[in-house]
Description:
By secondary structure, the protein is α/β, with parallel strands linked by helices. The chain contains 22 helices and eight strands.
Amino acid sequence: MTTTYDPHSPDYLVESDLREELTRVFDLCHGCRMCLHYCGSFPLLFDAVDAHDGDATKLSTSEQDKVVDECFQCKICYVKCPYIPPHEWNLDFPRLMMRANAVRTKNGKKPPIEYITDQVMSRTDLVGIVSSAISPIANKLIGDNSGPVRKSMERFAGVSSMRLLPPYAKVRFTRWFKTRIRPFIENRRARVSVYPTCFIDYMAPEVGKDLVNVYEHNGIECSLPAGVKCCGAPWLHAGNIDEFKKVATRNVAALTTVIAEDRDIVVAQPTCAYVVKKDYPIYVGSDDAKKVSARTFDASEYLFMIHRKKGGLKTDFVGEVPSEVTYHSACHLQAQNVGVKGRDLLKLMGVKVNLVAKCSGIDGTWGYRKENYDSSKKMSKALGNALKKTGSQVYVGDCHLANTAIYEETLQRVEHPLSILARGYGIPKE
Length: 430
């Protein structure tokens, strides 16, 4: 058996070894078919193997690569697949797809436009700093899907002009945090460091503000980690593991300082939390990375843990509390196997919660690439229809990327569960 998902293995970037593993896994998947409706990779895979009379060894390189192209790293395989490690068959489909992307990137087999797209979409801090500084202009330009800027981005950078891009905030979350007046926290129950990542810092600082205010309202002291940047997910999903390792190693060093102060790490974006928890230990491979992983939590997960282990959250809901909401369970939260804690927080408020667990089709940067637009749009449309069928007037979700796709489909703003909690406590939106 040639199985290797270890990026430190000398065989990891050997294409012949990769092709053997693709054949082995595709044969197992074809025999199971449980995952037929999860994403485009599987029906494409099954049809291709069927066309060769069920013989996966006859798949061509291009046929294998088409299956790889359709995987957008939703990670739902980890929730549904019966053969994931530690099963004896050791079938890890998402990591195999990431390995295939890494081999293709290393061997220079991507179309040139894809390399440009990788560079544009992976430099989130550079783009975020510039775009936030000129946010009124930047948002006007990127918000005009038929305008010259978006058309040029599609033609020369591979970013779909049809997709709604998240707007940038004028005041970054980190700036707000550093200049705010910090309240005195009586009866402190925990200490955390809020790792905002690029989404909260540049695009959704209101979520970060509500997180901090709700945490402090419940006796949880908040700080910011120094020296952290984007989690590096765009580099990883693009197959550039060298750049990802650089980013991950730097962030692990910064976050190790945080846990040395006996603070837990809280992340308010599911994709980023997943990367820190699951990918840093594998790609960095150090004891520090494992320690950081063990002390990292999704924002809703951590707050509910405090509720269960340290005497319960405050229930002084004197503000606005919706009677019913529809909660979207994000894929990268499901893959963390922590449950739907955002929903559970809402239930503490006495809210009736409808649950929808469909993929938004964005998944990092995959859904923003022009070559993936049609496939991505089908999934986000299905999600939008599922939400509409609940009849709810309030949509709630933890993932900023998914929430943007939901807004695009429904024209209804999606709130983070901690924002609902903040309004319930009577904490005004800043």
